[in-house]
Please model this.
Amino acid sequence: MHPIFRNTTRLGAYLALWTILAALLGALMRIPGDLAWSQALSVAVPLCLFYAFVCLTPWYLCRAFPLGTAGVARLLVNHLAAAILACALWIGLARLLAVVMELGSRLDSAIPQLVVIGLLLYLLSVALHYALLAVEASREAALQTRDAELRALKSQINPHFLFNCLNSISALTSTDPGRARDMCVLLSDFLRKTLGLGERASIPWREELELARTYLEVEQVRFGARLQVEMQVDDDCSECQVPPLVLQPLIENAIKHGIATLVDGGIVRLEGHVEDGHLAVRVENSFDPEAPSPRRSGLGLRNVRSRLQTRFGDAAHLHVAAQNNHFSAEMVFPCHKTNS
Amino acid sequence: MKLRAIIVDDEELARQILKEYLDKAGDVEIVAECANGFEAVKAAGELRPDLLFLDIQMPKLDGFEVLELIDPPVAVIFVTAYDQYALKAFDAAAVDYLLKPFSTERLGKALERAKALLSDPQPRAFQAAELAAAARPPGQALERVVVKDGTKVHIIPIAKLDYVEAQDDYIALHSEKKQYLKQQTISSIEAQLDPARFTRVHRSYIVNLERIARIEPYTKDSRVAVLQDGAQLPVSRSGYARLKELLGENV
Model:
């Protein structure tokens, strides 16, 4: 379907533009002095409204013959043929209207100008359609790039985490086979969930939370008593639709730049609640302010921020604060309960 | 020959599996297990082990910093999960490296290498600080300097470093009116520091640009840099040229 029909305001604006054109055309037809305003407009307005729709047809032709790929000669022949056809319809209707309005031959003097105007309007519309297509193509390209980035992000499992887990499992096999098996199950769970998110645009918050929980359980095997987890998440958040893996980078940061920097470890606190139709999530952890800043500092946060921005615009925000040895990240975004 | 080894890793399970493997190997005696860099530096100083199994990512001091601070240097086997930058440097800096998880066979090979190197009557000339510097990822400026003072370890954040002075085989790091000695050459620390924040004003001096209060003429050909705390550092002609380039004409 033509993009102008996708939205009624756009269609309205387009028709309003043609109404102005109709007024101008009416004024033009009055110049020879044979027609009254009412007669001129009764021809010009229906004529222009009809032509408004004729001038939308280049959309299909322009898509069939994109600039740059189709040959110039073919392009010209096709568009000119279409322009002549459109113009013939335009003149034919003008004559028909003249007959209906019983104007006799008083419109005849305006016919040569009408031919020129009809051809020019059609060709102008062709040019505008090519511009429109170029805009759509670039928007599409931007969307695809973002999708690709997102897919890359979703499939990105921290290798450091993975290999350390495997090492923990390896250590547990001889001392505590039961726990080794549990760890295998947890890790598989986490991997399966992460990999499964690749194709989904949004997931319910409870799934995101479940993923974080699994991740933290795995990390608790690794870090032992050094990692303590506190969770306080309201049930009414469960069905909020969130971009997949929006929480995960915050949790990973809390471990990697927080707990892992402390000899005695610390607490990772996760809070979530709904307020005024917004989901507010808070991740807090302790960290060592003297630890050297991480190599890929801020990459995860930047990702989360840009994904919230693309999804929710200014309705979402992510705020981080480090004070003494306490770090907190808070994100707030609209909670849509159904997957739209 | 029974090797005396120290295991350094912040994860208990990681220490546990290494211990289990080494017990099986039979000819290694584990003299200490350390959960962080500080403990490792202390234990290595007191126990003088032959061999160190060293994790890279740890709280307080990372593996490279531990390596810098251990004196005299010992043979090191890095044990790490994943570190793309470090891998390249391991060949030069360490006896071997083990990627977690590893097999007993792989550990056996590393032990053989360690024994071969340790039984070599020619001790390897081995400058820990230089090696650690080489092992850092390229293009990443130092964010803090670690110095050992007896059994104490000082961590000097770069922002608190006023200037560095060459003293024979050592460098003196001046920070907040105190001075810390470290065995390293001035050229090697110059290469590690961010050139936008530190510059070599003299053969023997590197200065933190933010600390310079003014530059005064000294003799016909030389100048002195007066720092905010009043310290005066000689500035050579080429050092002055560098300062002018970094700070503009108004120095």
User: Anything to note?
Assistant: Chain B is about 35% helix and 30% strand. Chain B has two domains: 3-134, 141-247. The domain at 3-134 of chain B is CATH 3.40.50.2300 (Rossmann fold). Chain B has a mean pLDDT of 85.
